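Let us walk through a complete example step by step. Step one is to write down the protein sequence. Step two is to encode the small molecule, magnesium ion, as a SMILES string so that its atoms and bonds are unambiguous. Step three, shown after the inputs, is the structure prediction itself.
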Amino acid sequence: MALSVLLVDDSKFVRKGIAKELPTILDGKELIFSEASNGNEALELLYVNSYDIVFLDLTMPEKTGYDVLESLKERGIKANIVVLTADIQPESEKIVRSLGAIGYMEKQRPLNREALMKVLQETNIL
Ligand SMILES: [Mg+2]
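Step three: the predicted structure of the complex.
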């Protein structure tokens, strides 16, 4: 079965990095890849589609990743969300997990392939 992934990040650089790495990690598994560059676009997609995994940036203009998690929670929508963040505040992981995120990954430049694999293993995607 193909793996459906939604990647939400306002940084084109981050989106490109993950889009490039994912197929190499999935090792031949078919990938259906969607992208959103802000929280509003992400919610429009998440209200109507379901994904095997959603990578969600926290810091985005207008609607943040926290806002997206809150909106999904309010509507009772469950999504397999892994938060991506460059912000290493110790409280942020606790907050996003309480809002329903299933994983948490620190963003590094360049993208840390091992961290991406680890989070996919932890969330039983790999
Ligand atoms: Mg951002």
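Step four is interpretation. Residues 12-26 form the longest helix (15 residues).
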